[in-house]
Amino acid sequence: MTRVVEQRGLYFDELEEGVIYAHKPGRTVTETDNVLFTTMTMNTQALHLDAAWSSSQPFGQRLMNSMFTLSTMVGQSVTQLTQGTIIAQLGLTDVTFPHPLYHGDTLYTETVISRKRLSSSRPGQGVVTMQHTGRNQDGVVVALATRTCLMWTEQAHAAQP
Question: What residues contact 160, with CB distance under 8 A and at least 6 apart?
Fold first, then answer.
């Protein structure tokens, strides 16, 4: 019989508070990423689209769309933490962008589990609070976010039909 190994995130029971989960590989962001994401989401901000105008602004160049940065940062955590083990994302708070991300930068993300508790109303499920930190290739923090998710316990998930 062939053994099957299925890639998945971690269950509530496996997540440890205070541990740093480093998500690899990084993601080098491009002008194409920025223009497509910005136009797809109907964001007409010239800081993302207009190179000539942006060159006259304080950062001297176009900035990556911060929502792209946030989405990529959260996305980088999925494979390692929540793939197939999450029930729902409950919220994002404390989102900040202390430094711009530019075309050609590489985004690296790490996550710390800051809190976890079993749900009092949903047996076999738990609420997990995660602190995501995104850094560029030089280690400069470009994004921070607190994310709260409803997660399966391993036993309860296995009992699902």
Answer: none
The verdict on whether omega for the bond into residue 100 sits within 30 degrees of 0, i.e. cis, is no
**Distance from C-alpha of 129 to C-alpha of 107, rounded to nearest angstrom:** 22
Cα–Cα separations (whole angstroms), residue 73 to 69, 103, 111, 158: 6, 16, 10, 29
Distance in Å from the first CA to the final CA of the chain: 23
β-strand partners of 28: 106
Paired tokens of 104: 């050609």
Each residue of 27-42: pLDDT tens digit?
Answer: 999 999 999 999 999 9
33's tokens: 């990423």
Tally of residues, the chain: 161
Task: Count CA within 13 A, CB hemisphere, residue 115.
Answer: 9
Structure tokens that stand for 83 in this block: 């793939």
Task: State mean pLDDT over 92-119.
Answer: 98
Rounded distance between C-alpha atoms, residue 122 and residue 125, angstroms: 6
Pair of tokens at residue 57: 């602004």
Residue 98, Cβ neighbours under 10 Å: how many? 10
Instruction: Give CA–CA dist 27/104, Å, rounded.
Output: 10
| Average pLDDT score over the chain | 97
